[in-house]
Amino acid sequence: MATTSARLDPADLLAVGDLLTDEERLIRDTVRQFADERIRPHVGDWFERGVFPARELAPELGKLGVLGMHLDGYGCTGSSAVAYGVACMELEAADSGLRSFVSVQGSLAMRSIHAFGSEEQKQRWLPDMAAGRAIGCFGLTEPDFGSDPANMRTRARRKGADWVLSGTKMWITNGSISDVAVVWAQTEEGVRGFLVPSGTPGFSANDVHGKLSLRASVTSELVFDEVVLPADAVLPGVTGLRGPLSSLGEARYGILWGTVGAARDCYTTALDYAKSRIQFERPIAGFQLTQQKLVEMMLEVEKAYLVAVRIGRLKDAGQCRPAHISFGKLNNVRAAIEIARSARTILGANGITTEYPVLRHANNLESVLTYEGTSEIHTLVLGEAITGESAYR
Which of 44, 142, 151, 200 is deepest in the core (most CB within 10 A)? Predict the structure, then answer.
């Protein structure tokens, strides 16, 4: 019987990474190196100060190839779903705000233009967005309508050949730093998407302050006060909620991978700390209760990683359904939050500082649990998938 003396990797005990292709591992390692060198040394300070240097980082992320990397053409790399997933995993291992920036840019703003825009709109925006020369945001959520976008109050009406847009969007990542906002509004024809460049008269963006989560991320309110847009501002390729919801599915897919990175970072931080922290004349890693916490973390990280790989393979095969995305987001975010909280207990008082990432991850994950579909909504998606009965109303 063959045996092996190779040491198990505590960060990936099941060697889930072996399920990746050589190209996927190369992308994973390249993005990890970028995050380690460019993001980790600074993100604690960014979080504490509530800033994110998007204009500085966007061209670097464009050069890295992660902006719209799962799209084809227009300067995008056309990577596989799994390759995009492992990139999200490594980005969020550094900070959820970093992954959010990339996700909103590529999976929401760029993907909406790529899927539903005219050729002129694609040529105008996508190459610059892929390179990080232009930043986009995605306006769907409103102050009173988050999980129920069908009742949004933002309206667009025709005025001759133009459109007039009025309303408010809330909790918009990249809002005040965007060069173009993809905005969804009710029209007489149904929900339509509009491209609203920054600086358009009547369009303003106000940052949300006082956040205790996603502090290294720009979050804004978008206000549209009788904004006049030309006829070619509308996305011609879709009418109805299918447009924004399909793009949200792409963003949720990135989240189910990203949270694996956040969970792994909390677990490995706690593991390293436990091996070096001496109490009662021995490392706390040698105590049974600490080992139990670490083992529970490791189990959940590996299971979440397996879930992400499986859903990614389904997506690359064209077999991924919305219920699969809900499965991944619900399971993986929930697991990551519990891992972050448990990791903090191992670090003790040190765990509440920005010197270590675990409470920063825990705070960020509270937002990730809610945005792109709350845990309640994803539970109902899965409930309908297994019972055939809708419980939304």
Answer: 142
